[in-house]
Amino acid sequence: MNQYSMVIQWSNEDQLFLVTIPEFADRVIMPCTHGKTREEAIHNGEEVIEMYLEAWQAEGQSIPEPRTLQVV
After folding, report:
1. I want to staple 7 with a disulfide (CB 3.0 to 4.6 A). Which of 20, 31, 49, 61 is the partner?
2. How many domains would you assign to the chain?
3. Do the domain assignments include residue 54?
4. What is the pLDDT of residue 1?
5. Burial class (CB in 10 A: 0-12, 13-18, 19+), 56
6. What is the CA radius of gyration of the chain?
């Protein structure tokens, strides 16, 4: 299980739950995935996190550190 944050938001326009990963925001176009249900969005978000981590590691790139999301 990864320790990265996921923000799940409903989009009336798309009629989907959109997933944003705050730690990846400066490196990946957001939202990075979606789902028809909250559960599907979470599952897809987990897959995207793993995909990016594996790709960055294979390419020798730095990997963003998980952090606690600060809500203001």
Report:
1. 20
2. 1
3. yes
4. 58
5. middle
6. 12
